[in-house]
Amino acid sequence: MNLNDLTSPFDEHGRCLPIGLGAPALAQSRRYFQITPPQIDYAAIHARTTKHLGDTGLASDEFVRRCEALMQSLRDDPQTTNITRGIAVPFLLPQAEHADYGEALEQHYIPAVEHAFAKTFPQYRFTNHDKAGLSGKLSVAANSRHERLLQAMQQGPVVGYYFPCLSEYSLPAALERVQSLPEQFLMAGGYDTSAALVGTPGLLQRTDGYPPLLWLAAVQADKPLAGYFYEAYGYNLTFNRRPHFGQAAEYWNSGLTVLG
Amino acid sequence: MTTMTNETQPNKLTPEEQAKREGLRVRKPYVAAKLAAISEMEERGEISPIIRLEKSYLCNFQCTHCSAEYYMDRHQKKVFKIEDARRKIDLDDIRELSRQADELGLARFVITGGEPLVMKDFDAVVEAIDPDKHYIITDTNGWFLDLATAKHLKSIGVEKVQLSLDSMIEAEHDAFRNKPGSYKKVMRAIEASVEAGLNLLLSTVLVKGRAKSSEFLEMCKFATERNIGLYVSYAKPTGSCTDHPEFVIEKEDADILRELEKDYNVFTHMTPSYGSFKGCITVKGIITVTSTFEVTPCPYIDFSLGNLRETPLKEVLARGMRNPWLGPYRPDCIIGEDPQFIKLHTEKTKGVTQLPVPWGQGFSDSDTLIG
Ligand code: SF4
C-alpha cells in the first residue's frame, strides 16, 4: 500500500500506520502494550504545569480554549481525525530558550516530572536512572521537525497535544515516518514529553497490563544507537537511557506533537 | 533446579561487595575485564548473555515447581516410558562452548541441572569451562553444601553459589521441595558459603499470592539483614508447574515485588540495575545449553534456537535476537505473563517427549507476534 492511497495515516485506534518505511516497524500491532486513556482535566494540568514548570502567563481558560480548538481542527480533517481516537495528552510549556538541550532537560524538565509525580503519587517513586548526566549530550534529531517546538517556546508559552502514536516503531522508522506526515506533526522530544507527564503524571500507570515505553525520539543522543525514554516500573515512573539498536519492538512508542 | 541470574545486584554496592570485585580483578584479571566490558558491549548493540549449562539433570530432590523435570531421565522413563537416545554433551563439547563464548566476549556460566553438586564430574566441568576465562556460578539446593564442599568449590574456581530457598517456614520449604530436612541444609549452606568466601545469592520462586504474604516479607528481611541478595523468579506454566496453573503470578504480584525492591535486597533479573533496565532477558541476558547441546532462550521456554553441534553459538544468538518474541526489549515475562505466548508454548510442547522442541518447530525465522 502507498501512503497516498490512505484517507488517513492513522488507524481507528490512533496508531500512526507504518507504511512505506525503509527502517523497521511492526506492520501490525496486537495492541499488547497499551496506555489506559487518561482523564483529561485541563484545570489540573494547567495548575501542575504552573507549579512544577513555572508560570506560563497563560490563563487556564485560554489554555482550554486553545487545546479544544486544536483537537477540533484535527477531528474536522478526515486525514487527521483518527489520531484523536488514540491517546492524546494536552500540555503546556512556559516560554524558554535553552543553550544546552540536555542540561535543561536534566535540571528543569525531568525534575518537574519527578515533583509532579511525587505530588500525585506520594506512595510511589520517580527515578532518573541516567547517572551519566545529559549536559552537552543531546541535540535535535535531523528531520524531526522538533526545532519548530523550540522556536515556538522562544516566542512564548506553548500549548500542544502529545500523541504517543508511533507504536512499535524503531527510532529511525519514527523519524522517517514524521517526514511524510502533514506539516503540523512534529516528533516529540524531551521538553514536550516531559510537559505531558508533568500535566498527566499517571499517564503510564497501569494495573491490568503493561504500558509502553516512551522514547524521546526527536532527541539525538551522543551515540547513534542510544536513546532516552520514560518508562513505568510497576507503579513507579523512571527516566533512562539505553541502546535501541535501530530495532522495532512491540514495547516501544514514540510520540507526535501538535502545537495549538 | 530452576534458578538463573544475571549477575546484577541492583542495590548499591556495599564496601564488602566492592572488595570482592577488587579481589576478582587481582585473582582473575581476564574475567574481571570481560565483566567490566559488558555495558560497553551493550552500548555497541552486542549482547553478553549468561550461559546456563545443564550438563546433567540428575537430582536428589523432586521439587513441585521444577522447570527441568521434563528433561530428566527419571521423568522420561516413568512417564513416557522411553530412554533418551540423543547424544549428550561431554567435556570436549563444554570446552568448545567455552571457547566460542569467550570469542564472543561472553563471560558468565551457571552450572545448573538437576542438582550440580550430585554430578560426579562437577570439578571436570568447571575445568572445561575454565575459571580463568569465565565467571563461574553454580546453582544448588544446598543439600550437600557443607563447609568442606564450599571451600572446595572456591578452590576449584567457582565464584558464586545460588541457593534455593522456597519458604521461611521450614515445613513449607520442605514440602515444596518434597525433601524433609532440606530447609536446615539450606541454612547450613548459607553459613558454609559465607565462611568459604563464596559470593552467595538466595533464590526463591514466587507463586501467585506469595508476594503479599508475611512469610515472603520475612524472607526479604532475612536476606537483607545478612546482606545477601534474594533473587526471585516467577513460577511459570512449564515443567512441573504445567500441572499447577494456579502458581502462575499476575501483574499485581510482580508489582508488589517491585515495591519491595525499594526497601529490601530483593530483585528479579528484570530489576533496573546499574542504571539500565534489563526487562525480559531472553537471549540478551541469558541462554540455556541443555544436555543435548540445544540452546534455549530461557530456562522456562522449551523451544530450541539451534543445536551447537550443527550451528555455531554466534548464529544461534543471532537467531534469537532477530526473533520477534525474544530479541526486542520488553518489560514483562513472556512465558510467565504473556497469554498468547503461553498458549503457543503449551500447544507446541504438548505431548513432546524430548525437549526442547527443535529449531524450526518451536521457534523459527518466520515467527510473528500476530497469529
Ligand atoms: S521469559 Fe524472559 S522474563 Fe520470563 S523467565 Fe524467561 S527470560 Fe525471564
List the helices and strands and how they pair.
The complex is a heterodimer of chains A (260) and B (371).
Chain A: H1 42-53, H2 60-76, E1 89-93, H3 101-120, E2 126-128, E3 139-140, H4 147-155, E4 158-167, H5 171-179, E5 186-187, H6 190-199, E6 213-215, E7 219-220, E8 226-233, E9 236-243, E10 252-259
Parallel strand pairs in A: 2-9, 6-10
Antiparallel strand pairs in A: 1-4, 3-7, 4-10, 5-10, 6-8, 8-9
Helix pairs in contact in A: 1-2, 1-3, 3-6
Chain B: H1 15-27, H2 29-36, H3 38-43, E1 50-54, H4 73-80, H5 91-103, E2 108-112, H6 122-129, E3 135-140, H7 147-156, E4 160-164, H8 170-176, H9 182-196, E5 199-206, H10 214-225, E6 229-234, H11 251-260, E7 266-267, E8 286-289, E9 295-296, H12 313-322, H13 334-337, H14 339-349
Parallel strand pairs in B: 1-2, 1-8, 2-3, 3-4, 4-5, 5-6, 6-7
Antiparallel strand pairs in B: 8-9
Helix pairs in contact in B: 1-2, 5-6, 7-9
The complex binds iron/sulfur cluster.
Describe the structure.
- The complex is a heterodimer of chains A (260) and B (371).
- Chain A is α+β, with helices and mostly antiparallel strands and 260 residues long.
- The longest helix of chain A is centred in the middle third of the chain and has 20 residues, at 101-120.
- The two termini of chain A are 31 Å apart.
- The relative contact order of chain A is 0.21.
- Chain A has one domain (41-259).
- In chain A, strands 1, 2, 4, 5, 6, 8, 9 and 10 form an eight-stranded mixed sheet that branches.
- Chain A has helices at 42-53, 60-76, 101-120, 147-155, 171-179, 190-199; strands at 89-93, 126-128, 139-140, 158-167, 186-187, 213-215, 219-220, 226-233, 236-243, 252-259.
- Helices cover 30% and strands 20% of the residues of chain A.
- The mean pLDDT of chain A is 95.
- In chain A, strand 8 (226-233) and strand 9 (236-243) form a beta hairpin.
- Chain A has six helices and ten strands, in the order ααβαββαβαβαβββββ.
- Chain B has a single domain, classed as Aldolase class I (TIM Barrel), CATH 3.20.20.
- Chain B has 14 helices and nine strands.
- Chain B has a nine-stranded mixed sheet with strand order 7-6-5-4-3-2-1-8-9.
- Chain B is globular.
- In chain B, 52% of the residues are buried.
- Bound molecules: iron/sulfur cluster (SF4).
